[in-house]
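ugh ok so i messed up the first submission bc i forgot one of the chains. this is the corrected input, ALL of the components this time, i swear. 386 residues overall. if the numbers dont match what u have on ur side tell me asap before i send this to the collaborators (the ones from the other lab, u know who)
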Amino acid sequence: MAIDVWRDPEGVRMALEEMFEQDYARAQTRREAAGANEETRARMEARLPARTMAWGYYRFADHLFHLDAQRRAGLACHTRDLAAFEAEGLLALDRARTAFEGRHPACSACGQRQLNRFGVECPGCGVKFQRKKA
Amino acid sequence: MPNIELNAPRLISIEDRGKPYSLTLRRIAKKDWLRYFEGILSTSENQSGKRVDSFDSSAARLALIDDCLIGASGYTLPQGAAVGANDGGILNVEGWRALLPLSHRLGAANAVIAVSQSDPKDEDAIALGVESVFLDAVWSADADGVMRKFHGLRHNFKVPTAEQQRRISRDSSRSRVVGGSRNGKTLWLGAQPTLAELYDELIVSVEGYDCAGESLADSPEKIAEWMDTYHKVAAVDVLFAPAAPKVEEDGD
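and heres the new structure output, hopefully the right one now
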């Protein structure tokens, strides 16, 4: 059975989450590989998480990122200019972004995303995190 | 060089083993081209995280030619009788299109899709408010049966809007997945119908094209009506492609 990618918001959300995670892993690898030789860098890049969805999901996700970038830049975009599947896709993008930001909170001092929610110190600026006492 | 005549059959000359043959095609209408674009099989597969693309247009090309062929010359009938271009002989042979060599039909199809971006032919700076696209294309054989390439066919467009850009992005991102969302094959649906629509919305004038002996020049309505849909798609594809930045290699 054929799946129309633009009508599968759950599949699109999964692809978007993968893209967020890949971007995070790539940025982290770039930081860690600074100063490393070519071979080490290639080995580290080979460890980046692979894409697991059919390729059409990533292409549609790129389109949603483009729409979202326009929205965030304040470009007026009336809902009547959006197809219903684009509106659904933008909602999937918001869900994927919220989930990603929950898994990798930003350092309140420098903004760098953390490996997870349980770190005690930011690897970017060294600031110590304080846990809220219950 | 004369202009391309849009309102006339196209004569495609083919030389095979030293002998000349020619195939005559009627004007290829928009619906023929849309059927051709629909028939293109462009797919991508995810193999261990790597994208593997495949593209096959041979069936679509053959169907296009079979739909539009209205004559052929240079061939002999099975009984050995020579068939001229105008005596109608070959047209009396049942299923004559399918009897023509596959390589000739594919060759004719390759000729009608031989359209590519060309460099601007003049030294003029870009005019504000107008965007020009230049194409090179093979069209039809001349009176001597010689196929020549037309260079610098000019299409002048209005500046596209953000909304038109968004339509291209939307339609070129649509695909269908067969075999499951994870391991399935992506079939790209293509945005050619949208590109053709945008051509009609944006075209201002053209150079290098005639219709019934008259230059199409700057009549957007006539251009939209008569321009070959494949040329429309090729021109708008170039219009929306990002320009390549000029990068100098560092000398040290």
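quick check: The mean pLDDT of chain B is 89. that seems consistent at least. Residues 4-240 of chain B form one domain.
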